[in-house]
Structure formats: C-alpha cells, structure tokens
Amino acid sequence: MRASLIALAALPVLSSASPLLASRQAGADQTKVDRLRGALLGSQRASWEQGAAAQALLEIDYPTFSVFTSNHFEVVGSTAAAVSGTNDGDWSFAGQNLPLQALQIASDAAVRQNDDGRLGVRLGGPVDGSAADPASMEPIVALGARIWPDESGRQFLQSASDRQLAYLLNTAPKDPQGAISHRTEQIAYWADSVFMTPPALAYVGALTSSADLLHNAFNQISVYRSKLRLSSGLWGHILSAHGWDDRGAWSTGNGWITLGALRVLASIRYSGVQGLDNEQGQLIAFVKEVLEQAFKAQTAGGLLPNYLDNASSFPEAAGTAALTASVYRLAVLSPSDAQGLLAAADKSRNAVLDAVNALGKVAPVVNALDWSAEGTSSPESEALALMMMAAYRDYQNAQ
Fold first, then answer.
1. Which helix (H) or strand (E) holds 255?
2. Are 333 and 325 in contact (CB under 8 A)?
3. Could you tell me whether strands 188-190 and 92-93 are parallel, antiparallel, or unpaired per DSSP bridges?
4. pTM, rounded to two decimals
5. pLDDT tens digits for range 172-185
6. Phi, psi torsion values for 245, nearest 5 degrees
7. Exposure on the CB side of residue 95, measured as CA atoms within 13 A
8. Pick from 139, 196, 285, 313: CA 20 to 30 A from residue 206's CA?
C-alpha cells in the first residue's frame, strides 16, 4: 500500500504555472509566484509548514480544490468514478487536473503518521511535541481520500484522516471548554493553532455535513480568542498554564489566526450545512477586528512589524503576507467588512513581492523558532506569500 502511494511521485506532474494569475498579473508577478513555489518545494519543512505548503499549492495552482471556491465541496463530493487517467498520462478528477504535488504531501503525511494518529511526525528522531501542528495536514489527507487516483490509496488516506481526527477529538489535551491544546505536555494556547486545528475540524465537518464538527471548529477559535485577545483587539502569541510565554502581538501569529478563521468561515458557508449563521457572523467580526488593528501598524515601506504592538521590531514579510491574504479573502466573503483595508493591503502586497529574491526566498522574515529574531530561511513565508497572491487573484476575479 505504501509503495503504491509513494509511486505517485512517478506520475507526470502537470504544469505548475498559474494561468489565472498570469491573466490578471504582469509577467513579473508571475515570475515571483513561480520562484516562491520552487523555493517552497525545495525547502525542508516542519509539520506545520507541510500543511501550509499543501494549502498554498491548492490555492495558487488548483483553486477548485481550495475551500475558498464556492463549489469545492460539491466537486469533491463527486463519486470516485470521477477520477480518470493513467500512469502514462495526466490524471483528473471531475474534469479538474489533480493537484499532484499537494497529494504527494498527503501521501508522505500518512506514511509518517504516528501511532497516536498525528500526521507526518515520524521522521527518525523525537516525535513532534505539538498536538496541533500535525492537524494542518489533515485537510489535504482528507481531500486525498476523495480524489486519489486508485481505490487502495483512497482507503489508506481515509484511514489516516480518521486517525488524525480521532486524535483531535479523543486524545489531544483539552481545556475545560474543549479547546485543543497546542502542545502535548501541557495546556497551551498558541495563536498559530487557529490555522492548524480548527480548519481541520471544519474541513472534515464540511465533507461529512457534520454540524457538530463545524461548530466545534468555531468553538476552538472562540475559546482561543477568549484566552489570547489583548485589549487592542490583536491577539497575544502564547499563553500556557503558568501565564504568558509571549504576550506580544506577533504578526505571523495574528496572520495564522485570520487565515485559519477564514478557512473555517469558508468551510461553513460552502458546506451546505444550515443553522450556523451566528458562527459565520462572529468569525467575520473576529477577523475584521484583527485586520483593522494590524494595518494600523503598517510601516512606510508597506511591511508590517514583526510584533504589531512594537513599532521598533523589524519589518517582516511572512506575517504581512498572511494578513494581506486575509484582507483579500475577507473582501470576497464579506466585501463591506474589507473595503477600508484594501488600499493598505495593496501596499503590503507590493512590499511582500519586492521582498522575494531571485531564488524565491523572502526577506526580511522571522526565525520560525525564535520569534523575536530575523531568520534566513522560511518555508512558511513562501507558502504565505503564495496564499497572498492566490487571494489577490480570487479577489480580482470576483470583481
């Protein structure tokens, strides 16, 4: 079984160019997108970066398979007979080219799944100590279980998806309100978690028309907000049992929050499940509040500071990309709530593109393991910049 999954790498990979973007953007921007994709795929990635990479690839190259496309769940709910192709030619599902690079991430996540159900953490050393980061790979694994080219592969991925979901629901540490801890060793609330766990619950909930899972995804965000929200409306980064480990409004953390909340919003809205209008309204309000406060900190050059509540912190492109992408996504999902943010988002988008070098690397970016320091390599920044460009394209196409 695992051999058949890994063999997907031998299938022909369809062109990774993004024709929708090319039709909307100047060639220079398309070049930046191609460089970002190459840098992302060529980078060594941690668990959360694998999930972010899969999401970015879907959004930029295969938007039909992104939750931000209104008929996404209708398409992937098609029968498995919708898969067509051969090992000597191109594969498609319901007439759409298969997102092979993203599916390869799903394959690897399932092959490297831990005994407790966490995806993609068996790498030959100590197992990842996060309860939340591996869940970032759940959506692409659950998608793969619907669109993988052969039945045995779909069954394997479905089993992996079920085990990851069972870990979140039954094994991961939770607080008294049911919020899933970011860490395994103690209850800890990290802003990052909002991109990892709630979208996983929401995606499976939308696929299975489960109002309970969709509401659970919303509840995760609501509880985390009650713990991390600062008086400014921004969110602090890390709160654990002994108090704040990082009370600062880390820009990338706030970007993870808004992007995660918007993925949950889109999953609820496009799932067809009724009775969740209140949850949608609250998610929009949560996102709008963060974005309005975040862009008040925009620097003259267009980037946002690494810490939004510390003007002396260095300008940083990863968090800027995430928050800018969120403005464009909000502008499609709730246009009136984003109207006042679009000019600032355009300025930030241009600043992020200017930060992409000839190798597709982005700078300045934060060190993903030391949030107060600049880093030299950041797969998450490449993924977030791709998400930003996909969000901008989709916003332009919606006008």
1. helix 251-271
2. no
3. unpaired
4. 0.94
5. 999 999 999 999 99
6. -90, -30
7. 1
8. 285
